[in-house]
């Protein structure tokens, strides 16, 4: 665990309250986040799908046809993430 020191928190950083002195920020190692990696990628894929649908619909509006290219890029990104998740799932059957 790493502790960062030296800056003062005040005003808006604390929702309008003033800090009483130097702040201590605890920086946790990345392994605290890793168990939630798979669900996070699934959520990102879902969001990419929603954006793709939205961009595709908006591209039908006059003057917004260039959004078709962005929708295609987003669709490709979502496909890449799904492929990666499928590969991880087949490589390690015990993981989700």
């Amino acid at each position: 665990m790493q502790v960062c020191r030296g800056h003062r928190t005040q005003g808006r950083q604390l929702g309008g309250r003033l800090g009483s002195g130097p702040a201590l920020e605890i920086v946790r190692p990345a392994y605290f986040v890793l168990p939630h990696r798979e669900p996070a990628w699934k959520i990102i894929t879902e969001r990419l799908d929603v954006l793709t649908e939205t961009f595709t619909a908006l591209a039908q509006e006059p003057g917004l046809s260039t959004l078709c290219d962005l929708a295609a890029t987003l669709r490709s990104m979502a496909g890449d993430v799904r492929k990666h998740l499928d590969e991880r799932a087949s490589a390690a059957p015990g993981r989700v």
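The longest strand covers residues 2-4. Confidence is low (pLDDT under 50) at residues 1-12.
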